[in-house]
Design goal:
three-stranded antiparallel β-sheet, 3 domains, Tetrahydropterin Synthase, Chain A, four-stranded antiparallel β-sheet, rod-shaped, 7 helices, alpha+beta, single chain, about 290 residues, 10 strands
Length: about 290
């Protein structure tokens, strides 16, 4: 596996000045040789002009957050990463790589979650190249590699967790957004390390049940919400009834036998747990009539 090594170029401005001086001097020599009909000097001047033109090909500009991977006859020589105007061997092949932070949103994938329910999921991945040699030589097309491996990791993650948590403490795609994002980032990073890429952030951008089961799952969520609300209401009602009986007994407001206590508990629970306003019935007789 190739590892990145930084290389330094020569100052482009200094080399440009030298080449301009050489070029001007050679032109003057060529003109003199032609006038005096000195063939060897003329040939030498033409060769120098050709070499000067070739040397001009070694001038290169490195922009901020950009690198150039330098090869000479198929061998990796190093990466030029310092911004500025430089000159390197003109016979080298130079490939520009962006080191800027980039992001993309994956396609909406249709997969089955951990419980087998079909869902639609997509993610946003923020990444950048940190190892230029690996990005250039270890994979064929590192950008395409990032897209494909990110979607593969997202698909694998979606099948490992349920859409919704049905048990307390269970990790789910919908309710555990922070933890799911962290695990997605780790899984994508594991796949992209060989390409010299750092995953800065990965998070789910779209999550929904597939259209064919969306209606049924919505009713299921509504039913779960109603059940949870009813449980809270019943817990509160039981506590209020218990408090009422305790205070009546402690303050000796009225003495109730077990049958009348059961009747009172039933009436209080109906009033407290009903989803409609209770209609009071006034008893004009005694409690036992």
């Amino acid at each position: 596996m190739l590892r990145e090594k930084e290389m330094n170029g020569w100052s482009g401005w200094a080399m440009l000045l030298i080449l301009v001086v050489v070029f001007g001097s050679t032109i003057w020599m060529l003109i003199s040789a032609v006038k005096e009909r000195e063939v060897p000097l003329a040939i030498a001047s033409i060769v120098i002009l050709i070499l000067t033109a070739v040397c001009l090909l070694g001038l290169t500009v490195v922009n901020p957050n950009e690198a150039q991977v330098v090869q000479l006859f198929g061998r990796y020589k190093g990466s030029l990463k310092e911004q500025g105007f430089w000159w390197v061997n003109p016979l080298t092949n130079r490939r520009k790589l962006s080191l800027r932070v980039r992001n993309f949103e994956s396609n909406k994938l249709k997969v089955n979650d951990f419980e087998g329910n079909p869902i639609e999921i997509a993610a946003v991945v923020v990444w950048r190249v940190v190892e230029t040699a690996e990005a250039a030589f270890e994979v064929h097309d590192y950008e395409h590699f990032v897209h494909v491996q990110s979607e593969s990791a997202l698909r694998n993650l979606a099948t490992s967790y349920p859409y919704d948590a049905h048990q307390e403490g269970q990790i789910s795609l919908r309710m555990s957004a922070g933890e799911i994002a962290h695990r997605l980032q780790q899984e994508i990073q594991d796949r992209l390390t060989k390409a010299g890429v750092e995953v800065i952030e990965a998070r789910i951008s779209h999550l929904a049940y597939a259209p064919e089961i969306a209606g049924a799952m919505l009713r299921r969520q509504q039913a779960s919400a109603v059940i949870a609300a009813r449980q809270k209401i019943v817990e509160g009602a039981v506590g209020m009834v218990e408090m009422a009986l305790d205070q009546l007994s402690r303050k000796q407001v009225v003495q109730l036998d077990e049958e009348r206590k059961a009747t009172m508990v039933s009436n209080l629970l109906v009033v407290l747990c009903s989803d409609r306003d209770a209609q009071p019935v006034v008893n004009t007789g005694t409690l036992y009539q």
